Each structure stands twice: as C-alpha cells, then as structure tokens.
## 1
Amino acid sequence: MTPSPSPSPSSLITIFIATILTAAHSQDTTTTTTFANCNRTFSCGTIRNITYPFTGGGRPSHCGLPEFTLTCRDNTVTELTHNSVAYRVLKLDQVQNFMILAPSLLYNNTCPSQFHNSTLNSTLFRDDGPENEVINLIYGCNGYVMSVKPHNIFNCNSSISNFTDSYYVIGPVPTDPILRIIFCSISVRVPVLMDSGNRLSGLNISLREALTLGFSVKYNDPYESICSQCNGFGGQCGFDWISGQSICICDDKLCPPALPPSPEATRNASTSSQGNDDRSKPRMNVVPSIAGAILAGIGLGWLIFYCKQRRKLRLATNSSQTISKDVIIPPSNKVFSSPPLTFPSIHSYPPPKTDLGRDSSEFGVQIFSYCDLKEATDNFDCSRELGDGGFGTVYHGMLRDGRAVAVKRLYENNFKRVEQFRNEVEILTRLRHPNLVILYGCTSKRSRDLVLVYEYIPNGTVADHLHGKWAKSGLLSWPIRLNIAIETADALAYLHRSDIVHRDVKTNNILLDNDFHVKVADFGLSRMFPNDVTHVSTAPQGTPGYVDPEYYQCYKLTEKSDVYSFGVVLIELISSLQAVDTNRQRLDINLSNMAINKIQNRTLHELVDQSLGFEMDCNTRRMITLVAELAFRCLQQERDMRPSMEEVLEVLRVVQNEKLNAHKVEVVHISVDDEIGLLNGSISPPSPNSMFGCA
Ligand SMILES: *[C@@H]1O[C@H](CO)[C@@H](O)[C@H](O)[C@H]1NC(C)=O
Ligand SMILES: *[C@@H]1O[C@H](CO)[C@@H](O)[C@H](O)[C@H]1NC(C)=O
Ligand SMILES: *[C@@H]1O[C@H](CO)[C@@H](O)[C@H](O)[C@H]1NC(C)=O
Ligand SMILES: *[C@@H]1O[C@H](CO)[C@@H](O)[C@H](O)[C@H]1NC(C)=O
Ligand SMILES: *[C@@H]1O[C@H](CO)[C@@H](O)[C@H](O)[C@H]1NC(C)=O
Ligand SMILES: *[C@@H]1O[C@H](CO)[C@@H](O)[C@H](O)[C@H]1NC(C)=O
Ligand SMILES: *[C@@H]1O[C@H](CO)[C@@H](O)[C@H](O)[C@H]1NC(C)=O
Ligand SMILES: *[C@@H]1O[C@H](CO)[C@@H](O)[C@H](O)[C@H]1NC(C)=O
Ligand SMILES: *[C@@H]1O[C@H](CO)[C@@H](O)[C@H](O)[C@H]1NC(C)=O
C-alpha cells in the first residue's frame, strides 16, 4: 500500500483554479450530462413525427416540457395527461399549434368509471375557443316521470348513486336543468367541437359519437421565442425538468453558454426584432383573452341559434305552423319592440299616501309607502299570509282608503337591476283584462323592501277548490270548471297578444272571485329576474309538473310553454288531481304523463273525477272528452304541435256551446280530426264519437 502523495502546492492551485473555472462556466451539474436523441420524433398510431415541445415514446424527457409528455398505448392510442385527466390525442398540428383531444374515459363511452371535468384553462392548453361547444353531462338522476323520454336522456349505471337516468345539456346551464323535481348527483363538463354540438342538437349523431370526435385545444409553448432562436443557430430545443429551464442542445450537449440566450436577453431580443417572430410571448397572451371575452357572446348566440334551428327543422316538416317571434327576440326586449298597447288610466283610485309626500307615480306606476303597507298587513303578520309565491310571500292587507289588497313582498334583492324591475312593473300595471288580477303598483325604489300591491281576490285559488282546503265542499261543478278554463284561456290569450309570457301557469295562480270568475295572478313576474345565460340564475322558471318539456333543451319559456302548462290545468279540472303527486305510481306521478297515457289507452274514465257526472250525463261526457283531447294537444312534447292560446280559447268556447247546440258537434270533429296526424307516432286518440258512447 503506497500512501497517496501529499499534493504539491502547485497542483493544489491548479485544482483550485479549475474548480473556479468550472463553477463559473455553469451553475449546475447538467454540463456533464449529455442530452441525446432529441432529433427523434414521437409517432404513435396516426400521430406522426411529433417534436418539441412534446416528448414521449422514443423522445427522451429532456426534449420537451413535462406538461407535453405523450404516451402511446398499444402502438395506436396517443394520450396526454393534464391535471390528472387523460385525453386521447386524435389530431396534433404543430404548424397551427392545436390538437383535437377527447377525454379518454369518455371516448366512445357515455358512462365513465370516474367523473372528471375536462377543463384545459391553463396558459399551456386552452379549450375555450369558438370552435368548441360545452356539453354538460349530468349523472345519477332519479327517475324521469314522463313516458315520452326527452332525447337528451341516457342511461348510466354509476358508482356514485343508485339512479341511472342521465342527461346531456348542450350549451350553458342557466338553471337547475331538470328543475326541482329531479335530483341529480354529479355533473361533468366536457367540450365537443361546435360542429358536433350542432349535429347532436339536430339528432344527426349520438352523444357517444360527439364525444368520440373530441374538441379542439390550442396549445402554447411559453419558451417558443427562445426555442426559435435556438433553432436559428442549429440547436435543438429542450427542457431541463430539474431546473425548470429551457435549454438549447448542440450535439448531445448544451450549446456553448454564450449562445443560448437567457430569458431576459430573449425578451429584449424578441421585442427589438418584432416581425421576425410573430408568435412572441405578448401576442400569445392576447389571443386567449380575446377568445375569453367573446366566449359569453358566442354561448348566448349559440343558444338562440340552437332554438332557432330546432324550430326550423320542425317547420320544414310542418309548414302550416307559424314562427313565433318570441324565438329570436329575447323577452326583455320584446315589449319595447312591439306596438304600444292602449290601456285605461292606471290611476282609477285616489293615490294613497306616499313616501314623504313625493310624487306618487315616479315612473308611471302607483307608489305605495312601505310604512303604509306594513300597517295594512299588521307588519306582515304571518296570520295574514295568503301564500308563498315563486318570488315572494303574499299577504292580505287593507289600505287606509278601504281597498283590500294582496301584498307581495319579494324575497331579498334577488332581482338584478332596479331599473329593469321598474320597467317591468310599469308594463304589468298597464295590463287590464277582466280575468287578470290588477297590479296596482309597488313600493318606491327607496323603500327597504320591494313590495308589489295587487287587487285582492277573496275566494281562494282553483287549486284550493280542486284539491286543497275547499276541495270537500264540491263547489266546482263541471259548468263552473269549463268556465274557469275559458276565462283562464281568455286571460292568457290576452297576455300573449300583449307579448307577455305568463311563465307560471298553474291552478295555484288562478284565483276565483265570489262568483267563481277567474283572476289570473302572478303573470310575467319572472321577467323581472332576467335569466342571464352567462350566470347561473336561481330565478324559478315555472313549477314542477307544469313546465314545458322543451324548456329542458332551450331554457326558454315561450307562449307555447304557457299552452303546455294550461294543458296540465285542463287535466286538473277534469280529474281534480294534483299536477305532481309522489303518492301515485311512478309513471303517474306527473299528471300530464298520466293523462297522456290514459287518453292514448282510451281509459279516460279512469282519469275523470267521477263526481262531475262523466258516466251519468251524456253531454258532460261529450264535453269532458273534447276538453281532454284539447289538453292532449296542449301537452304535446313538441312546441309547434301545440295549439295557440287563441285556438285553445276558440275550441273551449265551441265545447261550451255544445251543450246548447248539440248538432254543432260536427264543427269540432273537423278540427279534432285535423290534428290527429300531429300526434307524432303516438296512438291516435279515439275519435270523439267512439268515446261518447251516445250519439
Ligand atoms: C441524431 O443525432 C445523433 C447525434 O446526436 C446522430 O448521431 C444521428 O445520426 C441523428 N439522427 C438523425 C436521423 O438525424
Ligand atoms: C414523418 O417523417 C418521415 C421521415 O422523415 C416521412 O417519411 C413521413 O412522411 C413523415 N410523416 C408525416 C405524417 O409527416
Ligand atoms: C365504439 O364502440 C363500438 C362498440 O362499443 C365499436 O363498434 C366502434 O367501432 C367504436 N368506435 C370507435 C371510433 O372506437
Ligand atoms: C364540474 O364542474 C362543475 C362546475 O364547476 C361542478 O359543479 C361539478 O361538481 C364538477 N364535476 C366534477 C366531477 O368535479
Ligand atoms: C383556471 O382554473 C382555475 C381553477 O381550476 C381558476 O382558478 C382560474 O381562474 C382559471 N383560469 C381561467 C383563465 O379561467
Ligand atoms: C343498471 O343496473 C341495473 C341493476 O342495478 C340493471 O338492471 C340495468 O340493466 C343496468 N343498466 C345498464 C345500462 O347497465
Ligand atoms: C344504493 O342502494 C343500496 C341498497 O339498495 C344502499 O345500501 C346504498 O346506500 C345506496 N347508495 C346510494 C348512493 O344511494
Ligand atoms: C342533419 O341531417 C339532415 C339530413 O340527414 C341534414 O339536412 C341536416 O342539415 C343535418 N343537420 C346538421 C346540423 O348537420
Ligand atoms: C435590452 O434593451 C435595452 C433597451 O431596450 C438595452 O438598453 C439593453 O442593453 C438590452 N439588453 C440586452 C441584454 O440586450
């Protein structure tokens, strides 16, 4: 064993200098590492010749960014994993810097084993461009209660819930999609190509196909300008995963330190040499923000476009239908663009005391002071509560001038813009029809709560009389019920002529006066709460059991939605049953569904309230049958197949006159027969004659 010679002073100095030089030369250990094989490309299946910033396959990791690592399965399927979600790469274009991706779990599969939102919103990947459309998949919903399934329902057994109903919703979901009657466990957001969205809404492709076509993703290499300089002098771009820095590789090694510019120098260089590199950093940052800014507009536009397209498709098959202007013009603009209505003066009563004696009609509406209303309702005492409406609680009050009023105190500030609220109140106070409740006015904008003041109608609601607290008294004979139907239809037809959609037609909103004449309440209220598609709105739109099934597809209530709800009211008048009753059998929970089944199966007698004399009286039976058929038409799934409110009114009046002129029944036969062809694949309802059993 020879002891190692003690180093001479000169060799010590040499080592010392060498160490300093090495340290000065590079700050990390990578100098000694070789960076080989970045001239290899990645290829897998149809994805070929992929280079920086991507790595994976035969490309070593230092040849690209960690977020751009691709994997290859079975030599055919290329995958990219981002935020722990794996995506199939269907296309990769390194000239335009975009990819077509599809979430792997949802590829050719609508029922994934795990649920992940697909949101690529980082600075590296963006999927929010106008070439995509968002679909929301909603899983684990409890049973759908209508027999006619909506086309956007599908089945998925999932681990998260015992419920197997699932839905897809194209575009934004402004409100709880299936309203409050259906509970869903989980929702997943996934983009698809705009074209797939269009074809899906036209039912030209299935959801599975749409998911399999993927969505477009723009990617952005934050070191792109450094890389182009590196390429400029023959280097190959890479990335040091340990130090997190862009590197430039020359012949398996880092290029000489003078050559690869530091990020600071690059920034200087790229700004001074604009034009050379038109994909420099600042510009890349602008593109996503522009895309984001126009996204909301595109979403809204698509929603309108979608509803329009659906209508067009249907119009093509049924040219006799007319286009409702409601489809194109948003409801908030509609009233102002329509011809002015003529109304009687709204000040038919002496103006009440006002806030500090200010002008009582500050915007053409009668203004009540909050204090007066507080006094009129005993400080909104609960014993005076008449009901809980969609937007507030209603109290019975007595004004100092002796008027009995119904006072609706709106729930705290769930309206968006006071200005719009006042406009809406002004429009509603101008509506005058013998079968509409009069809206006298509201509190001033300075008042602490917004309160609407209506005429008080003393005799309860139709719901109270059909299946509520007064049901047992049996005051509603068939002729009264038919009259209620006619007067309600009359009021709704008037609203529609005035370009107002009621939006919440139900027996709870049909009030009765002492002579059992109808006063329709709560009309147009949801107009005050704009259903802004860019925000999730909590404003209720309609009531479970009464809501137009097409609402679930377009989130838009039209005149034809009122017609649908009115169809439910007609069935309630015939049957005395509630619109929704969970004590009934599953398929009968929803009254409209139950009615459609009974009418189609020619078992109407099982639906009709026997106390009305259906079995006993021939004329009553004839009338009820005709009303049931009218209701059947109102309850059609497709909006365009439903009659207009004017037509409904006309048919009801003819039915009422039947009693007096039995021979006129022929008139009705013709109009009923005409519509049988519209029943869209369903069993044609029996002709009135076959159901009468008495000629
Ligand atoms: C890739 O680069 C290595 C040196 O790093 C070289 O030996 C090899 O020939 C190159 N291959 C191709 C296909 O250019
Ligand atoms: C990939 O590169 C190979 C060889 O460079 C070439 O023959 C082939 O056409 C390329 N494929 C694509 C899809 O560009
Ligand atoms: C999707 O799956 C079906 C069978 O489930 C198969 O026949 C079809 O080829 C698949 N399509 C794609 C694009 O993988
Ligand atoms: C997806 O995102 C929505 C809205 O951000 C959220 O409500 C939902 O729970 C998310 N789903 C999953 C599976 O994380
Ligand atoms: C991206 O998503 C994160 C949460 O996942 C969020 O905080 C961020 O604001 C989003 N960025 C953009 C631009 O939407
Ligand atoms: C879902 O599971 C139920 C039993 O839990 C089964 O009857 C049904 O066929 C399954 N549906 C599908 C689509 O797998
Ligand atoms: C599903 O049903 C089973 C029994 O049928 C019950 O034990 C389980 O808790 C249910 N799961 C959920 C998520 O409701
Ligand atoms: C759907 O297909 C029909 C004919 O099959 C075609 O007329 C229509 O334009 C298609 N719609 C879309 C959105 O592709
Ligand atoms: C960066 O640009 C400034 C002027 O914009 C110049 O004074 C400076 O010398 C430049 N630095 C480098 C490293 O090029």
## 2
Amino acid sequence: MSESRILLYYYFVPLADPQAIMLWQRTLCEKLGLTGRIIISEHGINGTVGGELSACKQYMRQTRSYPGFKGMEFKISQGGAEDFPRLSVKVRKEIVTFGVPEEIKVDNGGVVGGGVHLKPEQLHELMDENNGDIVFFDGRNAMEAKIGHFKNAVVPNTETTRDFIAEIESGAYDDLKDKPIVTYCTGGIRCEILTALMKNRGFKQVYQMDGGIVRYGEKYGNQGLWEGSLYVFDRRMHMEFGPDVKVLGQCVHCGEGTHKFYNCGNNDCRELILLCPECHANPSTNNCGKSECVKITSAINA
Ligand SMILES: [Zn+2]
Ligand SMILES: [Zn+2]
C-alpha cells in the first residue's frame, strides 16, 4: 500500500482573482487525486487536503510555484484521501468567517494590524516579563475549550467564529483592554484575524500563538501552560500531546471525565455533546439530554 498524508495550510496574501485560483486549485487536486476542502478569498487561501504522499509533494511544489504562494508553509500529518469524502474548492468572502470581510486588510506581509506572533518559548518569556499577569483568550468556539485550554484562559461565549464581533464589542472584556492578551486557536489562522479585530476595538497589547495550540503542544506537551485535549475537526475529534493528559471534559449525563464528543443520538438534533463510553452505549443517555432526544434515542434500541 502506498503512503498517504494530510496537508494543512493557510496563507494570507492579496489575491486579485480568487475565481481563477479556485479553478486552478480544483484542477490541480483532481489531477493529483487529492480530496478535502479549500477556501479561497481575496485575502488568501485555507486548505486541508489528503492523498498519496507523492501527490501531496507535487501539490505543495505546484502550489508554491504561484508567486503569491511562494512562502506558504504546509503542516503534514498522518492520514489520507480517505479522511475526506470528496473535494470541495470554493471562493468565499473570507477564508475564516468572522462576518467582516470589509474590515480585513491583507498585504504581502499577511493580515494588516494583527497581534504580535509569539513562538512557544516567547510565550514563556512574555509570561516571565509580566510576572504571570497575562490573559489567555480562546479564539475558538466555546465548545472546543471544554476538553482543553490554556491555564486560566478566558473562553468567550461563541458558537461559531461569527460570534466573536458581538463578544468583543459586548463590554464583557473591556477590563482586559490594557492587559497583555495572548489569543490562541488550533493552528493559528483564526487568531490572525481575531487579533486585528481586537486591536481595532481598543485592545492595546494583543499577541497571538504562532502556529496555534498545535505548535505549542508539539514543543511543551502537557508540561507547559496548556491543559487537556485538543479538539480537532476530523473524525478523530480530539488529540492529546502525551499520555499524562489532564481530562477536563465531563460527560453531560454522569459527570465522568471524558474528552470524546458525539453527535446526539437523535439524528435530527445536530448537537455535539461530551459523553463517557457507558452513557454513549446506553440508548437512554446517548443524547444531548433534551426530552425529545431522550424519547427518540430510548426508543431506537428498545
Ligand atoms: Zn456518562
Ligand atoms: Zn439532541
């Protein structure tokens, strides 16, 4: 069997003709047999694709041959085309949907006005310089933080990335406006935008975790300032940075420690919920807890 891989990448660069880039990328992926999801906008590209190792290598080479994408970095991880049911290459207004395409400015240096990038060791330096008085600000959906977050992080009340604007404009975080704030997300892309939006709204000392939780976890594992599991957007649902992980998640029914999200057993309910293996295996608790869902799942295997 031939080896296969997954490529994760994003790059902020002005693209005058996103439509042409989309057609080129789609043709390239089809030719190489890659599947996955690519979003292109006037601000750049964001993708996750999988396929044979040789095809992934060709994809990286050919994608970087476009002058605007010359500096693009790819994160290569285990997996392959089988992790994605199909290929989707789309043009959108934003490569991450904050709902403010007109506010985002991008030049050849990336997002204009974003927070200072911190490498994992620089985060620790910043921590020391401020005697530990820095604020971690979670740049993900609140659900993701249930199984893992930086120590004492502020977790905004967000169901989707679109909710951030209302959150940072709500006044709830105004006391942080003069403090050093470090935002973080899975791989860094959401913070590229979020930090610029925060600075535009009066947050003065804004930093972002370069490469996100993934890069920090690779460097410090569970021995640093990160606690718990990392929520990931593929069928694994979560990953850990070592065996000595703190279990932060709790089963919605019995409170047992868990880091595994499941879809509510009622197929019409799209809720993702934390369940322990036992409550997942039991029809009467394989649900989000809403009475309607309890009724439906209990009837499934009755
Ligand atoms: Zn349980
Ligand atoms: Zn439900």
